[in-house]
């Protein structure tokens, strides 16, 4: 992964934010409703998530994919040990947010493990979509009683977005208000399972409704 690192000394947050907006617009829109500090942590999480997702998209040979996952595993371990973050911009972002206590290295390592399992098994249904959402929720509020709902809805949302499922999924009670910036994009599952490709305006309208009502 040497071609994906750069000798940075300061986290380029604007660049990372633009990247998340480009590659994961759904989550990016929802994250705009979070308080500023938590929004930055969500941005770091989603940028990291994208780095893991694109192993599946960019690598066809299993040994090369495993090397990439191991690179990230070691990078997170170094941050956990208090060593300087590697020169990859996402590592720098994660390092800042771990130091601030808004991201936990254990949760990030679990994401690496989950995506590696999905990659090895060539089964995208095993990607840890639920864990991404639970980690995001923990950034906003550490203790809540909505974990089961997150697991169920995230699976339906992911399947609909990948066009591998057309079921709306579970109907759940309104999401607690503090959690909504982490889950409001799940409301888009309705559009996706209908086979629609929502544009930026319709996404914002749908997510804003979820923010106001908690209905995802």
* Record field, number of beta strands: 0
Question: pLDDT under 50 segments (min length 5)?
Answer: 1-9
- The termini sit apart by 37 Å
| Class computed from helices, strands and strand pairing | mainly alpha
Radius of gyration: 17 Å
Helix and strand run: HHHHHHHHHHH
Rounded average pLDDT: 92
What does it look like?
By secondary structure, the protein is an all-alpha fold. The chain is 64% helix and 0% strand. The chain is built from eleven helices and no strands. It has helices at 13-23, 25-31, 36-58, 62-80, 89-99, 105-121, 129-140, 147-161, 180-183, 189-193, 200-213. The termini are far apart. The model is unreliable at 1-9 (pLDDT under 50).
Quick take:
This protein is mainly alpha-helical and 216 residues long.
Descriptors:
single chain; 216 residues; mainly alpha; disordered N terminus
How are the elements arranged and paired?
Layout: H1 13-23, H2 25-31, H3 36-58, H4 62-80, H5 89-99, H6 105-121, H7 129-140, H8 147-161, H9 180-183, H10 189-193, H11 200-213
């Amino acid at each position: 992964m040497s071609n994906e690192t750069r000798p940075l000394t300061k986290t380029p947050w604007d660049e990372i934010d633009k990247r998340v907006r480009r590659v994961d617009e759904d989550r990016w829109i929802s994250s705009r409703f979070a308080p500023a500090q938590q929004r930055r942590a969500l941005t770091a999480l989603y940028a990291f998530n994208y780095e893991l997702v694109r192993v599946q998209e960019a690598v066809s040979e299993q040994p090369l994919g495993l090397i990439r996952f191991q690179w990230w595993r070691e990078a997170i371990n170094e941050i956990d040990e208090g060593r300087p973050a590697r020169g990859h911009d996402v590592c720098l972002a994660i390092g800042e947010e771990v130091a601030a206590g808004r991201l936990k290295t254990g949760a990030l390592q679990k994401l690496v493990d989950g995506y590696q399992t999905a990659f090895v098994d060539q089964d995208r249904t095993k990607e840890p979509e639920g864990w991404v959402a639970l980690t995001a929720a923990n950034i906003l509020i550490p203790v809540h009683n909505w974990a089961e709902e997150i697991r169920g809805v995230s699976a339906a949302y992911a399947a609909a977005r990948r066009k591998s499922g057309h079921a709306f999924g579970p109907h759940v009670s309104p999401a607690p208000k503090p959690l909504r910036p982490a889950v409001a994009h799940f409301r888009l599952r309705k559009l996706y399972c209908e086979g629609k490709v929502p544009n930026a305006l319709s996404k914002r309208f749908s997510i804003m409704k979820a923010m106001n009502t908690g209905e995802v």
